[in-house]
Design the sequence.
């Protein structure tokens, strides 16, 4: 298992234009980031495209990494998740049939796989559980499935403004719980 | 809490931003604020750190090897020639000096014409224009005419000229540039045949030139050799 600090030093080396470090960083992290892209996009070809875009951004932005205060895996996972969500939104704007896309999801990992809960993860779970079930599910759906307020309003059958008020209050409760 | 107060809360707003729930206008406005408000960036980072924990459950999936190949091809498509060693030297030096590779500009009329037409020319230039040396290579006589247009050696230092042949592993010294603005350098015939497609570079060296036979100081200027 690659140590967290190894990932950090690889990112810093990539920031200096080190191609060997870039290759090593890809080898160490691409499987996790591909998993994230697959989870969000549910489509192998799109996830491959997204993964490639993620690492182009890593190459371009690594020199800025040391200034942003992110832990290395969070930085990489955030890049991957955001890239995948952007791609998902582009697809939705293009009116690709979502049902067709979901049919291709067989290769995607199950969400429960390799659930090794860290203490931070346990705390997040506990705080999500303090929210009403629908509200914590809405937060998860926004983060991992790229649901918009419109998607969530339809899903929970509430007006858009109500959905937004719900979710904002849920975020504040979550923040309060996490800071305890 | 009223919806109005709610809306003004940056904590919730940062969470909405991270979740990609803001519409385009809200998102743009938030990013403008984020550019000048470190506290907002901290809120975003905190949410990113928290929400990214949700991906701990996601199993790694090894991507097809073709993805890495496409990626490296798209980023490093110039890496076909086996020039990694000198290229690393060059890029490292250029980065350290805060300059880039000079444009491959031909400046034949910058040198007052004398003698036969050149076979190749090069403009060896710092990206910021602080050092520009025009070069003309006369194949008949294996002579490189260099003309320093702009820039000087640092006090107590000299400028050394290097030839990096196409596909070569290491730069070869063509000599230290004299204080004179114009100079003629006799190029050994073994090197002269390497001039086509070569790269010329100038480094900062101690008086007398590099003591090691390889560049020791910063790479100040670079230029590709082109047909005249």
Sequence:
């Amino acid at each position: 298992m690659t140590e967290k600090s190894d990932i950090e030093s690889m990112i810093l080396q990539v920031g200096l234009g080190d191609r060997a470090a870039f290759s090593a960083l890809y080898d160490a992290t691409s499987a996790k980031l591909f998993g994230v892209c697959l989870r969000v996009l549910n489509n192998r070809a799109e996830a491959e495209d997204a993964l490639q875009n993620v690492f182009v951004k890593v190459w371009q932005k690594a020199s800025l990494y040391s200034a942003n205060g992110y832990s290395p895996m969070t930085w990489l996972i955030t890049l991957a998740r955001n890239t995948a969500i952007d791609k998902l939104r582009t697809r939705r704007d293009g009116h690709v049939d979502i049902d067709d896309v979901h049919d291709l999801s067989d290769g995607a990992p199950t969400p429960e796989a390799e659930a090794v809960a860290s203490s931070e993860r346990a705390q997040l779970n506990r705080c999500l559980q303090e929210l009403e079930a629908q509200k914590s599910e809405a937060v998860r759906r926004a983060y991992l499935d790229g649901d918009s307020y419109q998607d969530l309003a339809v899903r929970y059958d509430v007006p858009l403004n109500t959905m937004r008020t719900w979710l904002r209050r849920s975020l504040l409760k979550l923040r309060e719980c996490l800071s305890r | 809490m009223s919806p109005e107060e709610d809306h003004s809360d940056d904590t919730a707003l940062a969470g909405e931003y991270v979740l990609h729930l803001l519409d385009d206008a809200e998102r743009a406005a938030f990013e403008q604020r984020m550019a000048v408000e470190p506290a907002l960036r901290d809120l975003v980072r905190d949410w990113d750190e928290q929400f990214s924990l949700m991906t701990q459950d996601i199993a790694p999936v090894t991507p097809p090897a073709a993805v890495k190949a496409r990626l490296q091809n798209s980023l490093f498509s110039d890496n076909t020639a086996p020039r990694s060693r000198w290229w690393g030297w060059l890029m490292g030096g250029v980065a350290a000096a805060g300059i880039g590779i000079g444009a491959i500009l031909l400046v034949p009329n910058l040198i007052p014409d004398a003698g036969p037409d050149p076979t190749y020319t090069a403009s060896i230039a710092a990206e910021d224009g602080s050092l520009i040396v025009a070069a003309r290579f006369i194949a008949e006589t294996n002579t490189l005419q260099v003309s320093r247009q702009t820039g000087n050696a640092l006090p107590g230092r000299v400028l050394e000229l290097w030839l990096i042949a196409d596909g070569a592993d290491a730069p070869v010294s063509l000599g230290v540039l004299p204080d004179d603005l114009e100079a003629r350098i006799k190029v050994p015939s073994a090197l002269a045949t390497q001039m086509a497609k070569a790269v010329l570079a100038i480094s900062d060296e101690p008086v007398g030139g590099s003591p090691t036979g390889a560049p020791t100081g910063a790479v100040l200027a670079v230029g590709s050799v082109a047909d005249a």
